């Protein structure tokens, strides 16, 4: 039970300021990355003068940007720094690190870990093979295409449909994607994603219990990374992701059945 002092503290001006600032920042989404002052005002439920005062303070902290040409606000660069710190602190990142490093040594290629951010896969850790003369690096924070990336297709295969609202439409439009999603469920990994810029990616799911929590992927040139489910590289990826999933409480049910 809260005390009178705690109730008063929660209604104090400083707490209200934090709550309003958080409400403004939370108004921006991937589908709505730009907002006008009128839209922010409506979201805040306050006067336009109050909304302007908050946006000015958030701009000073680099949490918001303002485009004079369009008169629209967007999230500022400091948000990226905070997001990177938040992603680095995710328990899955810490749990996956030794498995990723082992896979780098086994496969000799770059290994990437991605999570589902609500709309698409987002890279939260990338481990490069430092022994290669030419290194392939994937930027942490990169958002991957849902339909064309190997990680995206794995999430399509194993996430509950209600968590991927665009999936039904994508599957109707692309019989090839539908076939690949069924193949992924049957084999437990994606090896048939399109090559991009001479690179090829194979990916497998990581489960926490029976729910997919992340994907782990090997990224390399189309020459180095084969498109075969029974290749040594694909088998190493599958073995390591299954070991990680078991550590996270997966009961050993084959991925095809877990989906």
Q: Extract low-pLDDT stretches.
A: 1-10, 255-259
Secondary structure: helix percent: 40-55%
The neighbouring-strand order within the major sheet is: 4-3-6-5
Would you report the number of β strands?
6
Mean pLDDT: 85
Main beta sheet: strand number and arrangement?
A: 4 strands, antiparallel
- CA distance, first residue to last residue: 42 Å
* Number of continuous helical runs: 11
Tell me the series of helices and strands, N- to C-terminal: HHHHEEHHEEHHHEEHH
Strand content: 15-25%
Which descriptor suits the 3D outline? Answer: elongated
Q: Structural class, judged by helices and strands?
A: alpha+beta
Radius of gyration: 22 Å
Tell me about this structure:
- The protein has 259 residues and is an alpha+beta fold.
- 46% of the residues lie in helices and 17% in strands.
- The protein has eleven helices and six strands.
- The protein has a four-stranded antiparallel beta sheet, sandwiched between helices.
- Strand 1 (64-67) and strand 2 form a beta hairpin.
- It starts with a helix and ends with a helix.
């Amino acid at each position: 039970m809260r005390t009178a002092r705690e109730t008063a503290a929660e209604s104090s001006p400083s707490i209200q300021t934090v709550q309003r600032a958080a409400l403004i920042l939370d108004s921006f989404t991937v589908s709505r990355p730009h907002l006008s002052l009128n839209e922010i005002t409506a979201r805040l439920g306050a006067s336009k003068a109050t909304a302007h005062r908050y946006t000015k303070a958030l701009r000073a902290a680099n949490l918001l940007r303002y485009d004079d040409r369009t008169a629209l606000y967007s999230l500022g660069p400091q948000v990226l720094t905070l997001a990177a710190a938040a992603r680095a602190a995710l328990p899955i990142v810490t749990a996956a690190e030794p498995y990723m490093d082992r896979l780098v040594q086994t496969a000799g290629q770059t290994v990437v870990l991605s999570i589902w951010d609500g709309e698409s896969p987002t890279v939260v850790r990338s481990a490069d093979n430092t022994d290669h003369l030419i290194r392939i690096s994937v930027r942490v924070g990169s958002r991957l295409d849902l339909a064309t990336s190997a990680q995206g297709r794995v999430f399509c295969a194993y996430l509950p449909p209600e968590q991927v609202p665009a999936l039904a439409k994508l599957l109707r439009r692309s019989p090839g994607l539908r076939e690949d999603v069924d193949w992924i469920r049957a084999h437990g990994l994606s090896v048939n994603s399109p090559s991009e810029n001479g690179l090829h990616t194979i990916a497998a799911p990581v489960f926490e219990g029976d729910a997919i929590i992340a994907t782990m992927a090997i990224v390399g040139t189309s020459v180095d990374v084969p498109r075969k489910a029974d290749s040594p590289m694909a088998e190493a990826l599958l073995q390591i992701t299954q070991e990680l999933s078991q550590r996270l409480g997966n009961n050993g049910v084959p991925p095809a059945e877990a989906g």
